[in-house]
Amino acid sequence: MQTTSFSQFNIPSIVWASPPPTTTMLCGKTTSTRRLSPPNAVASSTSRHQVTHSMPPEKLEIFKSLEPWVFENILPFRKPVEKCWQPIEFLPDPSQGPEHFEEEVRALRQRVLGLSDEYFVMLVGNMLTEDALPTYQTAINTFDGVRDETGSSPCPWAIWTRAWSAEENRHGDLLRTYLYLSGRVDMLMVEKTLQYSIGAGIDIGVENNPYMGFVYTSFQERATNLTHGNMAKLAIEGGDPVLARICGTIAADEKRHENAYTKIIEKLLEIDPNTTMIAIAYMMKKRITMPLHLMYDGQDPNIFKHFSAIIQKQGVYTSRDYVEILEFFIRRWKLEKLEGLTTGEARRAQDFVCKLPRKIKRFENRDNILDSHPVKLSWIFNKQVCV
């Protein structure tokens, strides 16, 4: 089966965190290991210095006291398993017999012929992000005061994390199976990339601090909702309504999860506005990075930057989206009108966050973040798909 390396693009990544020096990333048969110049806005050229357990011990009681509230206000965002969709509902069903199964696979492969290689790069990146779920559940279970202490804790914070993980787990399963059946990508390289990436872990800079952690999850769930929604629109344009429905369904899950995490921050702003406002500002200063920013395939140190470049070039997730998400949370959490801030640090944090969207827009316009930088991506594609 003929394969080809991916083509060049001109837009640098806008939101990424560089891997540590020992971490590298590429797929298969690459011809270039050229490092990109970092973009002019929201980016860091080195790994951040990790800080741990930054939340004062006395704040643990706040999260303990919120457990009844979590039972009543957050656990209802779970969906009963019997009412949840499952991946097989969107896929060729082998239980219907071999002839019917083969016919459905051929139909799937025919549909994806109308989708570009760029689309499949983005779909692989989204699948890897969803399928690296063990990393994210582990990360949430490092948050002080809300972690699952036993792996099956009856604490409502832990119940939510396990339920969230169980719902999210279906996303990667579905996308990976669809990619496998499509015949459009080198699944061996995809699977190696997933294993490397889970092994590399995650560094989102939340310091085991649930204030920061829930700011991150609020932002990230909204970003993934938007990304999957845009992928659904592109799938319709490319002639695959089934894949459009898959991406749209995943986006709906992300929206529901966003609502849960956003509600947690609303509650924290109500009962502890100073600490919560400072946490929001800290996360905005650090920049919200994509969860799989340490994506690695064993060879290419730039693979996440390449993926980020393509999703921006294709309009699936851009610097403007980042700003719009920030503006949304400023409105949703009523940060400009937030009362009860009693410290100078908290008031400075409020001022910083509320002015940040305008600053990013000015910065982007001044330095033209969308200027031309050659970008290569070397995921290997199967160009001849038997239908």
Automatic annotation (TrEMBL):
Transmembrane segments: none annotated. InterPro entries: Fatty_acid_desaturase-2, Ferritin-like_SF, RNR-like. CDD domains: Acyl_ACP_Desat (cd01050). Its cofactor is Fe(2+). Keywords: Fatty acid biosynthesis, Fatty acid metabolism, Iron, Lipid biosynthesis, Lipid metabolism, Metal-binding, Oxidoreductase, Transit peptide. It comes from the Eukaryota. Belongs to the fatty acid desaturase type 2 family. This is Stearoyl-[acyl-carrier-protein] 9-desaturase 6, chloroplastic-like. The gene is LOC107021829.
